[in-house]
Design brief:
About 20% of the residues lie in helices and about 30% in strands. By secondary structure, it is of the alpha+beta class. It has a four-stranded antiparallel β-sheet, covered by helices on one side.
Length: about 100
């Protein structure tokens, strides 16, 4: 029908998971932030691990990524010491780098 505004839906994606469809950007952003925290605690792979918010008006037949972060090595943190030097099992400190907004 002409004149009807399409309702946007949102999902959160990572390299391992995809959320259910969400009605609000605020809810998607909350899940996005939680996933970022959870994945960083679980361990991420540099340049492979990511979290993103996707937006769609056609039930996700097509979608646009509106926010995305990718895990990168935190070189500033490495100057203070490596994880192994501090008693951890992983090889590098990581942080999220925002790549899409």
């Amino acid at each position: 029908m002409e004149g009807l505004k399409k309702l946007k839906k949102y999902r959160v994606h990572s390299e391992n998971d995809c959320s259910f469809k969400l009605d609000s950007l605020e809810e998607a952003e909350r899940i996005y932030e939680n996933w970022k925290d959870d994945y960083m605690c679980e361990g991420v792979r540099e340049s492979e691990s990511y979290v993103e918010i996707a937006e769609s008006e056609d039930d996700f037949e097509d979608y646009k990524v509106i926010k995305k972060v990718v895990a990168v090595i935190d070189h500033d943190r490495h100057e203070l010491g490596t994880p192994k030097e501090e008693g951890f099992d992983w090889d590098y400190w990581a942080k999220w780098l925002e790549v899409v907004e």
